[in-house]
Amino acid sequence: MIVFPAEATWASLDPSRLFAEPWTEFRHRQLGTFLHELARSASAPVQLRAVGSSDEGRALWTLAFGNPAGRRVLVWARQHGNEPDCQAGLALALDAILHRSGDPVAEFLLERLSFLVFPMVNPDGVARFTRENAQGIDLNRDAVALSTPEARALYALKESFDPEFCFNLHDMSPRKSRADGHLVSLAFQAGPFEEGDTDNATRLKAKQVVVRMAEACRPWAPENLARYRADYMHRAFGDSMMRWGVSSILIEAGGWFDDKGGDDFVRRLFALAFLKGLHAVAAGEDAPPDPAAYEAIPLDSDGRWADLLVRNGYVQAGSGHPHFRADLHIDRIDTAEPPKRFVRPVGRIVSIGDLEDTRGKETVDASELLLTPGLVLFAPWLRLDGREGAEAAMQLLRAGITTVAVGAGPFPTEEARYEWRNEAAALDVSPNVVAFELVEDLDLVRARHGLTDLAGYLVRGLTIDRASLLRLIQLFHPAGMLPPDSAIEDRVGLDLFYIPSPSPSSAQVRIHLSRRSEATPRRPIDERAVRQFCSDFLRHPGQVSLCCDGRDGVFTDLPVLVDVCGLEPGPVPPDFLGQVLRATKGSHPSALAATITMLTRRPAGSLQLAQRGVVEREAVADLAGFPRVDGAQWSESAYIGVAPRLVVLNGTVAVDATRGIGRAVPGKRLLAAEPRR
Predict the structure, then answer these.
(1) Is 662 helix (H, G, I), strand (E, B) or coil?
(2) What is the structure's pLDDT at 532?
(3) Cβ count within 10 A of residue 517
(4) What tens digit of pLDDT does each residue of 131-150 get?
């Protein structure tokens, strides 16, 4: 019998060699390329065929190879479209078996086993990066009803192949723990075949294979292996296989620490376990000597680790209320963003408060920091493409700015806009970017209402006279009037953001006011044109918001406020903003709270960036941590010229001055207006 060389196998496994892109991008097309190349260059005969098609017509590929007279093993993966790690582990194992001519273990498996592999059961769900298929059905709950073409194909393979063993490959939460608190990297299960934890010969064989897999993986993860906790479910394929007389073995990919190998460590461990499981079947190591060995593998638990745990910070939540002391539990979730072929990590705040019992894969001590929402920069002139853009992006992150609103276009045709949108969506940009389409006047917006694929329209380069400005403020903010001795000049810069919506009651207009620049020609506009535009597309004044640009005594020189509205590069004299802000906002609070409130917690109808700019449960995890000034009260003057010590973008630490971290974390391209929660 060939002894399984665990150390040599571990050293040979390299997920990045097989697929250079993130495995979240391994879709049906990439699978077809991989399988055809594998079949073409395999060291043994391989039969590649489609056994049907998905609900949306994607081919359901299978691989058959090995010795037809050997023990029959059925393998399936990616039954859930948002579980890419099991796909990576399977690809590594297939490469090890079929691309190592002369390797004694590979030859042993090919001689002793007959393989039938269904590597992507749910290609429609993979395209969407969703658990369910295109019909919205969980394929692992369709083993009885067989309502889906994918489930019918898997059942037909079981019927025609008549396997003795099956391997059911999945991902689970990368944050699950065992009862002893250790993070789970892999979980195994010899699934039940009926209600209650009873055994028969079929299940005992599966249990012994699990024991062998755990033994092989223990040197690399001695405290991170578990038994998967799940009750019998007759609709699930794994339990059904056991009920149908097939020894069913479940492998679930879990989580690991980013600074110790992260997801690739889990994928290598997954492939190692799977290969050892196959070796155990081929070598006849499934004879059950002692059932207690299976029970000795610790169960997983309901405990959860945080992807990022920020401890003991003073949280200024963006609501205008006083700051408070709290821990933050942040998790990163892979989600499909428009266009659907791109998957991006989104960090969410899971819980806030005293999280003494929570463990973090990464932990940051924020005991001396004031934590604020990441700042939003309105900079329509800014470009973040290319090398210069990457350098500028890092400067923005170091200033605590995590979302930037930029301009794009104007586009001569709809095709040009669509092409730019697709190219921009594929770029990894720091920080997050909201793109508006630049147009020259309100008439163009009126003519093309709703046609943009971007977040909205931006009309720049307008001016409005002082009297019209006062009437606009009174119209949209009846309680606020500029004082009679206002120092606002006769003409004021005006830039209009329009965020279209299918419903006039949810469209938004945001009017930016800025000091008129003599260097930039502007076109005069009367408030009647703005009022007419608003009446065309809106239903009530609350859908319009006013904001102001520049620096004044309230916003003096904070690093988070450099060109905060960014309509024109360069500073703005101090008189302008104070007058308008006090007229529209009432008495001003301290500078940082005022900034956060104005930029993020806006009145109904203003621009919202999917809960950016707040620190609350389920909000996007974009944070800036400033050195905290001693004392219960703090003022704007204490933060003049102070840069943040910590910046978190989408749940990932981008800047941590204490630990010397400064990484260009990929942001998101928010190219369409995101719905309100």
Answers:
(1) strand
(2) 86
(3) 16
(4) 999 999 999 999 999 999 99
3-state secondary structure 238-300: HHHHHHCCCEEEEEEECCCCHHHCHHHHHHHHHHHHHHHHHHHHHCCCCCCCCCHHHHCCCEE
Q: Is the dihedral of CA 251, 13, 82, 257 positive or negative?
A: positive
| Distance between CA atoms of residues 109 and 509, nearest Å | 66
**pLDDT value of residue 553:** 26
Distance (Å) of CA 99 to CA 27, 68, 69, 109: 22, 20, 22, 13
Cβ neighbours around 651 below 10 Å, total: 24
Residues linked to residue 511 through DSSP beta bridges, in sequence order: 496, 546
609 CB neighbour count, 10 Å cutoff: 20
In the beta sheet, which residues pair with residue 364? 310
DSSP string for 376-429? EEE-TT----HHHHHHHHHHHHHTTEEEEEEEE---SSHHHHHHHHHHHHTS--
For residue 7, is it left (φ>0), alpha (ψ between -120 and 50) or beta? alpha
pLDDT one-digit tens code per residue, 483-508: 444 444 567 777 788 888 777 887 87
Q: Which amino acid is residue 659, in one-letter code? A: R
**Structure confidence at residue 620 (pLDDT):** 83
The candidate with the shortest Cα–Cα distance to 54, out of 20, 31, 85, is 31
Cβ count within 10 A of residue 529: 17
Task: Report the DSSP pairing between strands 646-649 and 623-627.
Answer: antiparallel
Confidence of residue 671 (pLDDT cuts 50, 70, 90): low
Q: Dump the DSSP string for 314-370.
A: EE--SSSSPPEEEEEEEEEEEEEETTTTEEEEEEEEEEEE--TT-EEEEEEE-TTEE
Q: Can you tell me the distance from the alpha carbon of 230 to that of 187, in angstroms, rounded to the nearest whole number?
A: 11
Residue 76 is classified by DSSP as E
Q: Which residue has the higher pLDDT, 158 or 464?
A: 158
For the cut 80, the answer to whether the pLDDT of residue 285 exceeds it is: yes
Angle between helices 575-585 and 466-476 (to 10 degrees): 30
CA 464 to chain centre: 42
The single-letter DSSP state of residue 639 is: G
Burial 367-386 (b: 16+ CB within 10 A, else e): eebbbbbbbbbbbbebebee
Per the CB < 8 A criterion, the answer to whether 621 and 612 are in contact is: no
Which pLDDT score is estimated for 637? 46
Which two structure tokens, joined as six digits, stand for 239? 């339990």
Helix (H) or strand (E) segment spanning residue 626: strand 623-627
pLDDT at residue 563, rounded to an integer: 29
d(CA 404, CA 349): 21
Torsion of CA 601, 605, 610, 614, to 10 degrees: 10
Q: Residue type for 611, please?
A: Q
Q: Give the Cα separation of 100 and 157 in Å (integer).
A: 27
pLDDT in tens, 380-413: 667 666 665 667 777 778 877 787 777 888 888 8
Mean local confidence (pLDDT), 339-359: 84
Average pLDDT for 465-478? 71
d(CA 175, CA 161): 36
SS3 574: coil
